[in-house]
Protein backbone atom coordinates (compact mmCIF):
# COMPACT_ATOMS: atom_id res chain seq x y z
CA UNK A 1 0.00 0.00 0.00
CA UNK A 2 2.81 2.39 0.85
CA UNK A 3 4.52 1.71 -2.46
CA UNK A 4 1.27 2.37 -4.33
CA UNK A 5 0.89 5.70 -2.54
CA UNK A 6 4.46 6.64 -3.52
CA UNK A 7 3.66 6.00 -7.19
CA UNK A 8 0.50 8.09 -6.91
CA UNK A 9 2.43 10.97 -5.33
CA UNK A 10 4.83 11.02 -8.27
CA UNK A 11 1.88 11.72 -10.56
CA UNK A 12 0.43 14.52 -8.42
CA UNK A 13 0.34 18.00 -10.02
CA UNK A 14 1.04 19.68 -6.65
CA UNK A 15 4.77 19.03 -6.47
CA UNK A 16 5.39 20.58 -3.03
CA UNK A 17 2.63 18.57 -1.38
CA UNK A 18 3.81 15.40 -3.11
CA UNK A 19 7.39 15.81 -1.88
CA UNK A 20 6.29 16.38 1.71
CA UNK A 21 3.96 13.38 1.73
CA UNK A 22 6.68 11.28 0.09
CA UNK A 23 9.06 12.09 2.94
CA UNK A 24 6.35 11.40 5.51
CA UNK A 25 5.61 7.93 4.14
CA UNK A 26 9.29 7.01 3.92
CA UNK A 27 9.73 8.10 7.55
CA UNK A 28 7.52 5.14 8.56
CA UNK A 29 9.30 2.70 6.25
CA UNK A 30 10.95 -0.01 8.34
CA UNK A 31 13.25 -1.17 5.53
CA UNK A 32 14.71 2.11 4.39
CA UNK A 33 17.76 0.38 2.91
CA UNK A 34 18.04 -2.81 0.93
CA UNK A 35 15.67 -4.64 -1.45
CA UNK A 36 12.71 -4.32 0.92
CA UNK A 37 12.58 -0.52 0.71
CA UNK A 38 9.37 1.01 -0.60
CA UNK A 39 11.37 3.04 -3.12
CA UNK A 40 12.71 -0.09 -4.80
CA UNK A 41 9.42 -1.95 -5.28
CA UNK A 42 8.27 -1.71 -8.94
CA UNK A 43 4.69 -1.36 -10.14
CA UNK A 44 2.98 -3.55 -12.72
CA UNK A 45 4.97 -1.88 -15.52
CA UNK A 46 8.27 -2.55 -13.78
CA UNK A 47 8.78 1.09 -12.77
CA UNK A 48 9.93 2.20 -9.33
CA UNK A 49 8.84 5.64 -8.08
CA UNK A 50 12.20 7.03 -9.22
CA UNK A 51 11.85 5.65 -12.76
CA UNK A 52 8.21 6.73 -12.90
CA UNK A 53 9.23 10.31 -12.10
CA UNK A 54 11.61 10.20 -15.06
CA UNK A 55 9.11 8.69 -17.49
CA UNK A 56 6.43 11.23 -16.52
CA UNK A 57 8.88 14.13 -16.79
CA UNK A 58 8.38 15.19 -13.15
CA UNK A 59 11.58 17.21 -12.80
CA UNK A 60 10.68 18.50 -9.31
CA UNK A 61 10.22 15.02 -7.89
CA UNK A 62 13.33 13.78 -9.69
CA UNK A 63 15.48 16.55 -8.20
CA UNK A 64 13.94 15.93 -4.78
CA UNK A 65 14.80 12.22 -4.95
CA UNK A 66 18.31 12.99 -6.15
CA UNK A 67 18.89 15.37 -3.25
CA UNK A 68 18.09 12.51 -0.90
CA UNK A 69 20.62 10.27 -2.64
CA UNK A 70 23.58 12.61 -2.77
CA UNK A 71 26.48 12.73 -0.31
CA UNK A 72 28.61 15.84 0.18
CA UNK A 73 32.21 14.65 0.06
CA UNK A 74 34.02 17.86 0.93
CA UNK A 75 33.77 21.62 0.56
CA UNK A 76 36.51 24.18 0.19
CA UNK A 77 35.33 27.73 -0.29
CA UNK A 78 33.07 27.92 -3.34
CA UNK A 79 34.02 24.38 -4.47
CA UNK A 80 31.88 21.45 -3.39
CA UNK A 81 32.34 17.79 -4.34
CA UNK A 82 29.20 15.67 -4.29
CA UNK A 83 28.71 11.93 -4.75
CA UNK A 84 25.44 11.04 -6.52
CA UNK A 85 24.04 7.55 -6.16
CA UNK A 86 23.77 5.94 -9.62
CA UNK A 87 21.34 3.22 -8.54
CA UNK A 88 18.55 2.94 -11.17
CA UNK A 89 20.21 5.71 -13.23
CA UNK A 90 23.18 3.92 -14.73
CA UNK A 91 22.24 1.51 -17.50
CA UNK A 92 24.90 -0.95 -16.40
CA UNK A 93 23.32 -4.37 -15.65
CA UNK A 94 19.80 -2.87 -15.83
CA UNK A 95 17.13 -4.74 -17.77
CA UNK A 96 14.98 -1.62 -17.98
CA UNK A 97 17.39 1.27 -18.14
CA UNK A 98 16.37 4.65 -16.72
CA UNK A 99 18.07 6.46 -19.60
CA UNK A 100 16.35 4.25 -22.17
CA UNK A 101 12.98 4.88 -20.53
CA UNK A 102 13.47 8.64 -20.79
CA UNK A 103 14.46 8.71 -24.45
CA UNK A 104 11.72 6.26 -25.47
CA UNK A 105 8.83 8.11 -23.86
CA UNK A 106 6.68 10.43 -25.96
CA UNK A 107 6.54 13.17 -23.31
CA UNK A 108 8.80 16.10 -24.06
CA UNK A 109 9.07 16.99 -20.34
CA UNK A 110 10.91 13.72 -19.72
CA UNK A 111 13.74 14.73 -22.03
CA UNK A 112 14.40 17.79 -19.86
CA UNK A 113 15.76 15.44 -17.19
CA UNK A 114 18.71 14.77 -19.48
CA UNK A 115 19.92 18.32 -18.70
CA UNK A 116 19.79 17.82 -14.92
CA UNK A 117 22.55 16.73 -12.57
CA UNK A 118 23.79 13.96 -12.40
CA UNK A 119 22.18 12.56 -15.58
CA UNK A 120 23.84 15.19 -17.76
CA UNK A 121 27.28 14.49 -16.30
CA UNK A 122 26.83 10.71 -16.52
CA UNK A 123 25.80 10.81 -20.18
CA UNK A 124 28.63 13.21 -21.02
CA UNK A 125 31.14 10.92 -19.29
CA UNK A 126 29.92 7.81 -21.09
CA UNK A 127 29.70 9.48 -24.50
CA UNK A 128 33.07 11.26 -24.42
CA UNK A 129 35.07 8.36 -22.98
CA UNK A 130 33.57 5.40 -24.81
CA UNK A 131 30.49 6.26 -26.87
CA UNK A 132 31.92 8.69 -29.44
CA UNK A 133 35.13 6.73 -30.21
CA UNK A 134 33.26 3.45 -30.61
CA UNK A 135 30.51 5.07 -32.66
CA UNK A 136 33.00 6.71 -35.04
CA UNK A 137 34.82 3.42 -35.44
CA UNK A 138 31.51 1.68 -36.15
CA UNK A 139 30.64 4.30 -38.77
CA UNK A 140 33.99 3.86 -40.50
CA UNK A 141 33.67 0.08 -40.41
CA UNK A 142 30.16 0.24 -41.89
CA UNK A 143 31.27 2.54 -44.73
CA UNK A 144 34.11 0.15 -45.61
CA UNK A 145 31.63 -2.72 -45.49
CA UNK A 146 29.29 -0.91 -47.90
CA UNK A 147 32.20 -0.15 -50.24
CA UNK A 148 33.02 -3.86 -50.29
CA UNK A 149 29.40 -4.77 -51.07
CA UNK A 150 29.18 -2.12 -53.79
CA UNK A 151 32.30 -3.41 -55.53
CA UNK A 152 30.91 -6.94 -55.45
CA UNK A 153 27.75 -5.68 -57.14
CA UNK A 154 29.63 -3.64 -59.73
CA UNK A 155 31.76 -6.63 -60.75
CA UNK A 156 29.02 -9.26 -60.51
CA UNK A 157 29.34 -12.23 -62.91
CA UNK A 158 27.89 -11.38 -66.34
CA UNK A 159 28.33 -12.85 -69.81
CA UNK A 160 27.34 -11.67 -73.30
CA UNK A 161 23.85 -12.51 -74.42
CA UNK A 162 23.61 -15.27 -77.02
CA UNK A 163 19.87 -15.25 -77.78
CA UNK A 164 18.14 -13.12 -80.37
CA UNK A 165 16.17 -9.98 -79.56
CA UNK A 166 12.48 -10.49 -78.87
CA UNK A 167 11.45 -7.00 -80.06
CA UNK A 168 12.88 -3.76 -81.39
CA UNK A 169 12.78 -2.27 -77.88
CA UNK A 170 14.88 -5.08 -76.39
CA UNK A 171 18.20 -3.51 -75.35
CA UNK A 172 19.82 -6.26 -73.24
CA UNK A 173 23.38 -7.29 -74.20
CA UNK A 174 24.56 -9.07 -70.98
CA UNK A 175 22.91 -11.76 -68.86
CA UNK A 176 23.69 -13.32 -65.48
CA UNK A 177 26.13 -16.23 -65.33
CA UNK A 178 25.20 -19.60 -63.86
CA UNK A 179 26.67 -20.61 -60.49
CA UNK A 180 29.20 -22.98 -62.10
CA UNK A 181 30.51 -20.16 -64.33
CA UNK A 182 30.66 -17.44 -61.67
CA UNK A 183 33.82 -18.47 -59.79
CA UNK A 184 36.44 -19.56 -62.31
CA UNK A 185 39.19 -16.91 -62.34
CA UNK A 186 41.29 -15.17 -59.69
CA UNK A 187 39.09 -12.05 -59.91
CA UNK A 188 36.05 -14.23 -59.23
CA UNK A 189 37.68 -15.69 -56.12
CA UNK A 190 38.56 -12.20 -54.90
CA UNK A 191 34.94 -11.17 -55.42
CA UNK A 192 33.85 -14.29 -53.53
CA UNK A 193 35.74 -13.07 -50.45
CA UNK A 194 33.86 -9.76 -50.59
CA UNK A 195 30.56 -11.59 -51.04
CA UNK A 196 31.24 -13.76 -47.99
CA UNK A 197 32.02 -10.63 -45.95
CA UNK A 198 28.74 -9.09 -47.15
CA UNK A 199 26.68 -12.13 -46.19
CA UNK A 200 28.36 -12.47 -42.80
CA UNK A 201 27.66 -8.79 -42.12
CA UNK A 202 23.98 -9.25 -43.00
CA UNK A 203 23.70 -12.21 -40.62
CA UNK A 204 25.39 -10.23 -37.83
CA UNK A 205 22.94 -7.36 -38.38
CA UNK A 206 19.97 -9.69 -37.96
CA UNK A 207 21.51 -11.32 -34.87
CA UNK A 208 21.98 -7.90 -33.24
CA UNK A 209 18.60 -6.45 -34.21
CA UNK A 210 16.17 -9.32 -33.53
CA UNK A 211 16.82 -9.56 -29.72
CA UNK A 212 16.15 -5.83 -29.31
CA UNK A 213 12.87 -6.16 -31.23
CA UNK A 214 11.76 -8.97 -28.91
CA UNK A 215 12.87 -7.05 -25.80
CA UNK A 216 11.45 -3.61 -26.57
CA UNK A 217 8.57 -4.52 -28.86
CA UNK A 218 8.15 -3.92 -32.57
CA UNK A 219 5.82 -0.91 -32.19
CA UNK A 220 8.20 1.03 -29.94
CA UNK A 221 11.38 -0.20 -31.63
CA UNK A 222 10.34 0.85 -35.13
CA UNK A 223 8.10 3.77 -34.21
CA UNK A 224 10.43 5.89 -32.07
CA UNK A 225 12.53 8.42 -33.99
CA UNK A 226 14.98 8.81 -31.11
CA UNK A 227 15.66 5.08 -30.96
CA UNK A 228 16.35 5.14 -34.71
CA UNK A 229 13.07 3.50 -35.76
CA UNK A 230 13.19 4.07 -39.55
CA UNK A 231 16.87 3.17 -39.71
CA UNK A 232 16.18 -0.14 -37.99
CA UNK A 233 13.61 -0.92 -40.68
CA UNK A 234 16.13 0.03 -43.37
CA UNK A 235 19.00 -2.07 -42.02
CA UNK A 236 16.82 -5.15 -41.40
CA UNK A 237 15.35 -4.92 -44.92
CA UNK A 238 18.88 -4.54 -46.28
CA UNK A 239 20.02 -7.70 -44.52
CA UNK A 240 17.01 -9.62 -45.86
CA UNK A 241 17.75 -8.44 -49.41
CA UNK A 242 21.35 -9.68 -49.07
CA UNK A 243 20.14 -13.14 -48.02
CA UNK A 244 17.62 -13.22 -50.88
CA UNK A 245 20.39 -12.32 -53.34
CA UNK A 246 22.56 -15.11 -51.93
CA UNK A 247 19.78 -17.67 -52.37
CA UNK A 248 19.17 -16.54 -55.96
CA UNK A 249 22.90 -16.77 -56.71
CA UNK A 250 23.17 -20.29 -55.27
CA UNK A 251 20.13 -21.50 -57.19
CA UNK A 252 21.18 -19.73 -60.43
CA UNK A 253 17.86 -17.87 -60.50
CA UNK A 254 17.72 -14.93 -62.85
CA UNK A 255 16.65 -11.54 -61.59
CA UNK A 256 19.11 -11.04 -58.73
CA UNK A 257 19.43 -7.42 -59.82
CA UNK A 258 16.11 -6.64 -58.09
CA UNK A 259 17.11 -7.47 -54.46
CA UNK A 260 20.67 -6.33 -55.17
CA UNK A 261 19.59 -2.86 -56.27
CA UNK A 262 17.25 -2.54 -53.26
CA UNK A 263 20.09 -3.56 -50.95
CA UNK A 264 22.43 -0.95 -52.44
CA UNK A 265 19.93 1.87 -51.95
CA UNK A 266 18.97 0.81 -48.41
CA UNK A 267 22.54 0.13 -47.33
CA UNK A 268 23.86 3.52 -48.37
CA UNK A 269 20.80 5.33 -46.98
CA UNK A 270 21.55 3.73 -43.61
CA UNK A 271 24.82 5.72 -43.51
CA UNK A 272 22.68 8.68 -42.43
CA UNK A 273 22.09 6.85 -39.14
CA UNK A 274 25.68 7.58 -38.14
CA UNK A 275 25.10 11.31 -38.56
CA UNK A 276 23.49 11.30 -35.11
CA UNK A 277 26.94 11.12 -33.57
CA UNK A 278 27.82 14.60 -34.85
CA UNK A 279 26.18 17.79 -33.61
CA UNK A 280 26.43 19.43 -37.03
CA UNK A 281 24.57 16.66 -38.90
CA UNK A 282 22.43 14.97 -36.25
CA UNK A 283 19.59 17.55 -36.09
CA UNK A 284 19.22 17.50 -39.88
CA UNK A 285 18.59 13.74 -39.93
CA UNK A 286 15.84 14.32 -37.38
CA UNK A 287 14.33 16.93 -39.68
CA UNK A 288 14.47 14.53 -42.62
CA UNK A 289 12.76 11.77 -40.63
CA UNK A 290 9.99 14.09 -39.49
CA UNK A 291 9.32 15.28 -43.03
CA UNK A 292 9.43 11.83 -44.63
CA UNK A 293 7.20 10.09 -42.11
CA UNK A 294 4.97 13.11 -41.56
CA UNK A 295 4.34 15.35 -44.55
CA UNK A 296 5.66 13.15 -47.34
CA UNK A 297 3.67 10.05 -46.36
CA UNK A 298 0.41 12.00 -46.38
CA UNK A 299 1.33 13.73 -49.62
CA UNK A 300 2.14 10.43 -51.36
CA UNK A 301 -1.48 9.30 -51.03
CA UNK A 302 -2.70 12.38 -52.87
CA UNK A 303 0.08 12.08 -55.43
CA UNK A 304 -0.79 8.43 -56.12
CA UNK A 305 -4.42 9.30 -56.83
CA UNK A 306 -3.48 12.10 -59.25
CA UNK A 307 -0.85 10.01 -61.05
CA UNK A 308 -3.17 7.02 -61.38
CA UNK A 309 -5.96 9.10 -62.88
CA UNK A 310 -3.89 11.08 -65.37
CA UNK A 311 -1.69 8.11 -66.36
CA UNK A 312 -4.80 6.16 -67.27
CA UNK A 313 -6.05 9.09 -69.34
CA UNK A 314 -2.73 9.44 -71.18
CA UNK A 315 -2.62 5.71 -71.93
CA UNK A 316 -6.14 5.76 -73.38
CA UNK A 317 -5.34 8.79 -75.51
CA UNK A 318 -2.20 7.23 -77.05
CA UNK A 319 -3.56 3.69 -77.19
CA UNK A 320 -4.37 4.04 -80.89
CA UNK A 321 -1.19 5.91 -81.85
CA UNK A 322 2.07 4.53 -83.25
CA UNK A 323 4.51 4.01 -80.30
CA UNK A 324 7.55 4.55 -82.54
CA UNK A 325 6.71 8.25 -82.96
CA UNK A 326 5.78 8.89 -79.29
CA UNK A 327 6.75 5.98 -77.06
CA UNK A 328 6.40 7.49 -73.59
CA UNK A 329 2.91 5.98 -73.21
CA UNK A 330 3.25 2.79 -75.25
CA UNK A 331 1.99 0.58 -72.35
CA UNK A 332 0.33 1.16 -68.99
CA UNK A 333 3.38 0.74 -66.67
CA UNK A 334 5.37 3.12 -68.86
CA UNK A 335 2.47 5.60 -68.72
CA UNK A 336 2.56 5.50 -64.91
CA UNK A 337 6.32 6.11 -64.84
CA UNK A 338 6.15 8.93 -67.40
CA UNK A 339 3.31 10.61 -65.50
CA UNK A 340 5.35 10.36 -62.29
CA UNK A 341 8.26 12.12 -64.00
CA UNK A 342 5.90 14.78 -65.31
CA UNK A 343 4.47 15.25 -61.83
CA UNK A 344 7.90 16.02 -60.37
CA UNK A 345 8.85 18.14 -63.43
CA UNK A 346 11.79 15.82 -64.12
CA UNK A 347 10.95 15.86 -67.84
CA UNK A 348 8.96 18.19 -70.03
CA UNK A 349 5.71 17.23 -71.65
CA UNK A 350 6.46 14.64 -74.37
CA UNK A 351 5.53 15.89 -77.82
CA UNK A 352 6.55 15.05 -81.38
CA UNK A 353 5.70 17.96 -83.68
CA UNK A 354 6.39 15.90 -86.80
CA UNK A 355 3.08 14.06 -86.30
CA UNK A 356 -0.41 15.13 -85.31
CA UNK A 357 -1.07 14.81 -81.60
CA UNK A 358 -4.57 13.99 -80.29
CA UNK A 359 -6.57 17.04 -79.25
CA UNK A 360 -7.41 15.57 -75.82
CA UNK A 361 -3.71 15.28 -74.99
CA UNK A 362 -3.42 19.09 -74.86
CA UNK A 363 -6.54 19.40 -72.70
CA UNK A 364 -5.52 16.68 -70.23
CA UNK A 365 -1.91 17.87 -70.03
CA UNK A 366 -3.07 21.44 -69.33
CA UNK A 367 -5.19 20.26 -66.40
CA UNK A 368 -2.38 18.01 -65.15
CA UNK A 369 0.15 20.87 -65.19
CA UNK A 370 -2.19 23.13 -63.20
CA UNK A 371 -3.04 20.52 -60.55
CA UNK A 372 0.33 18.80 -60.18
CA UNK A 373 2.97 21.48 -60.72
CA UNK A 374 1.26 24.65 -59.53
CA UNK A 375 -0.98 23.31 -56.78
CA UNK A 376 0.31 20.11 -55.22
CA UNK A 377 4.06 20.75 -55.33
CA UNK A 378 3.62 24.15 -53.73
CA UNK A 379 1.36 22.54 -51.15
CA UNK A 380 4.16 20.07 -50.30
CA UNK A 381 6.69 22.90 -49.96
CA UNK A 382 4.36 24.78 -47.60
CA UNK A 383 3.79 21.66 -45.49
CA UNK A 384 7.52 21.00 -45.19
CA UNK A 385 8.15 24.62 -44.25
CA UNK A 386 5.62 24.38 -41.46
CA UNK A 387 7.17 21.12 -40.21
CA UNK A 388 10.64 22.69 -40.29
CA UNK A 389 9.41 25.59 -38.16
CA UNK A 390 7.81 23.25 -35.60
CA UNK A 391 10.71 20.82 -35.34
CA UNK A 392 13.41 23.52 -35.30
CA UNK A 393 12.47 24.40 -31.70
CA UNK A 394 13.20 20.92 -30.39
CA UNK A 395 15.64 19.36 -32.85
CA UNK A 396 18.68 20.01 -30.62
CA UNK A 397 16.82 18.46 -27.69
CA UNK A 398 15.93 15.44 -29.83
CA UNK A 399 19.53 15.14 -30.97
CA UNK A 400 20.75 15.00 -27.36
CA UNK A 401 18.20 12.29 -26.68
CA UNK A 402 19.50 10.40 -29.72
CA UNK A 403 23.01 10.58 -28.31
CA UNK A 404 21.74 9.06 -25.06
CA UNK A 405 19.94 6.29 -26.94
CA UNK A 406 23.07 5.58 -28.97
CA UNK A 407 25.19 5.45 -25.82
CA UNK A 408 22.84 2.96 -24.16
CA UNK A 409 22.76 0.85 -27.33
CA UNK A 410 26.55 0.67 -27.54
CA UNK A 411 26.80 -0.15 -23.85
CA UNK A 412 24.43 -3.09 -24.33
CA UNK A 413 26.08 -4.43 -27.49
CA UNK A 414 29.77 -4.14 -26.58
CA UNK A 415 31.52 -6.61 -24.26
CA UNK A 416 32.05 -5.56 -20.66
CA UNK A 417 35.81 -5.54 -21.13
CA UNK A 418 35.48 -2.75 -23.72
CA UNK A 419 33.06 -0.65 -21.66
CA UNK A 420 33.97 -0.43 -17.95
CA UNK A 421 31.42 0.71 -15.43
CA UNK A 422 31.22 4.47 -14.96
CA UNK A 423 31.54 6.04 -11.55
CA UNK A 424 33.20 5.23 -8.24
CA UNK A 425 32.47 2.25 -6.02
CA UNK A 426 31.05 3.32 -2.67
CA UNK A 427 33.38 1.03 -0.74
CA UNK A 428 36.19 3.54 -1.29
CA UNK A 429 34.24 6.01 0.87
CA UNK A 430 32.51 3.56 3.21
CA UNK A 431 29.15 3.80 1.39
CA UNK A 432 28.61 0.12 0.59
CA UNK A 433 28.57 -1.62 -2.78
CA UNK A 434 26.64 1.03 -4.65
CA UNK A 435 28.26 3.09 -7.39
CA UNK A 436 28.44 6.86 -7.28
CA UNK A 437 29.27 9.67 -9.69
CA UNK A 438 31.59 12.38 -8.45
CA UNK A 439 30.48 15.87 -9.47
CA UNK A 440 32.32 19.06 -8.60
CA UNK A 441 30.13 22.11 -8.23
CA UNK A 442 31.21 25.71 -7.83
CA UNK A 443 28.95 27.68 -5.50
CA UNK A 444 29.30 31.47 -5.67
CA UNK A 445 28.13 32.96 -2.35
CA UNK A 446 27.61 36.39 -3.95
CA UNK A 447 25.63 35.06 -6.89
CA UNK A 448 22.18 35.62 -5.42
CA UNK A 449 23.17 38.97 -3.98
CA UNK A 450 24.43 40.20 -7.36
CA UNK A 451 21.21 38.96 -8.96
CA UNK A 452 19.26 41.18 -6.55
CA UNK A 453 21.46 44.15 -7.48
CA UNK A 454 20.85 43.52 -11.17
CA UNK A 455 17.11 43.34 -10.66
CA UNK A 456 17.23 46.58 -8.68
CA UNK A 457 19.06 48.32 -11.53
CA UNK A 458 16.62 46.94 -14.09
CA UNK A 459 13.60 48.03 -12.10
CA UNK A 460 14.95 51.55 -11.62
CA UNK A 461 15.85 51.86 -15.34
CA UNK A 462 12.42 50.63 -16.30
CA UNK A 463 10.65 53.19 -14.09
CA UNK A 464 12.78 56.06 -15.39
CA UNK A 465 12.24 54.90 -18.96
CA UNK A 466 8.46 54.93 -18.64
CA UNK A 467 8.52 58.33 -16.92
CA UNK A 468 10.61 59.68 -19.77
CA UNK A 469 8.16 58.31 -22.31
CA UNK A 470 5.33 60.17 -20.61
CA UNK A 471 7.27 63.41 -20.81
CA UNK A 472 8.00 62.83 -24.48
CA UNK A 473 4.34 62.27 -25.22
CA UNK A 474 3.50 65.65 -23.74
CA UNK A 475 6.11 67.51 -25.82
CA UNK A 476 5.21 66.76 -29.49
CA UNK A 477 5.98 70.07 -31.13
CA UNK A 478 8.77 69.15 -33.54
CA UNK A 479 11.18 66.31 -34.14
CA UNK A 480 14.05 68.66 -33.37
CA UNK A 481 12.70 69.14 -29.86
CA UNK A 482 12.16 65.43 -29.29
CA UNK A 483 15.73 64.33 -29.98
CA UNK A 484 17.50 66.58 -27.42
CA UNK A 485 14.89 65.71 -24.80
CA UNK A 486 15.39 62.01 -25.41
CA UNK A 487 19.16 62.49 -25.20
CA UNK A 488 18.97 64.40 -21.96
CA UNK A 489 16.49 61.84 -20.64
CA UNK A 490 18.83 58.92 -21.30
CA UNK A 491 21.73 60.76 -19.60
CA UNK A 492 19.66 61.63 -16.54
CA UNK A 493 18.25 58.10 -16.39
CA UNK A 494 21.65 56.43 -16.52
CA UNK A 495 23.05 58.94 -13.98
CA UNK A 496 20.13 58.38 -11.56
CA UNK A 497 20.08 54.58 -11.87
CA UNK A 498 23.87 54.42 -11.55
CA UNK A 499 23.82 56.64 -8.46
CA UNK A 500 21.10 54.58 -6.78
CA UNK A 501 22.82 51.35 -7.71
CA UNK A 502 26.07 52.48 -6.07
CA UNK A 503 24.10 53.53 -3.01
CA UNK A 504 22.72 49.99 -2.73
CA UNK A 505 26.20 48.51 -3.03
CA UNK A 506 27.58 50.89 -0.36
CA UNK A 507 24.76 50.11 2.06
CA UNK A 508 25.19 46.32 1.66
CA UNK A 509 28.95 46.61 2.05
Q: Write down the Rg.
A: 34 Å
Total domains: 3
The proportion of residues forming helix, as a percent range, comes to: 55-70%
How would you characterize the largest beta sheet?
Answer: 4 strands, antiparallel
Element order: H for helix, E for strand: HHHHEEHHHEEHHHHHHHHEEHH
Q: Could you say which structural class the secondary elements and strand pairing correspond to?
A: mainly alpha
Transmembrane segments: 134-158, 192-210, 231-251, 257-275, 296-318, 359-381
GO cellular component, one term: plasma membrane
Organism: Baryphthengus martii
Pfam families: Ion_trans
Provide keyphrases for this structure:
509 residues, mainly alpha, Helix Hairpins, 3 domains, four-stranded antiparallel β-sheet, two-stranded antiparallel sheet, 17 helices, 6% strand, elongated
Compose a concise summary of this entry:
The protein contains 17 helices and six strands.
Structure description:
Its main location: membrane. It comes from Baryphthengus martii. One of its GO terms (cellular component) is plasma membrane. Keywords: ANK repeat, Membrane, Metal-binding, Phosphoprotein, Repeat, Transmembrane, Transmembrane helix. It is found in: Membrane. Strands 1-2-6-5 form a four-stranded antiparallel β-sheet. A two-stranded antiparallel sheet has the order 3-4. Helix 12 (282-317) crosses helix 15 and helix 16 runs antiparallel to helix 17. It has helices at residues 2-10, 15-27, 49-55, 59-69, 98-104, 108-111, 119-154, 186-216, 218-223, 229-250, 257-269, 282-317, 332-343, 359-391, 395-413, 447-474, 479-508; strands at 70-76, 79-85, 158-160, 174-176, 424-425, 435-442. The longest helix has 36 residues, at 119-154. Mean pLDDT is 75; it is low at 472-495. 62% of the residues lie in helices and 6% in strands. By secondary structure, the protein is mostly helical. It has 17 helices and six strands. The protein folds into three domains: 5-116 and 423-446, no CATH class; 125-162 and 174-276, no CATH class; 292-412, Orthogonal Bundle (Helix Hairpins), CATH 1.10.287.
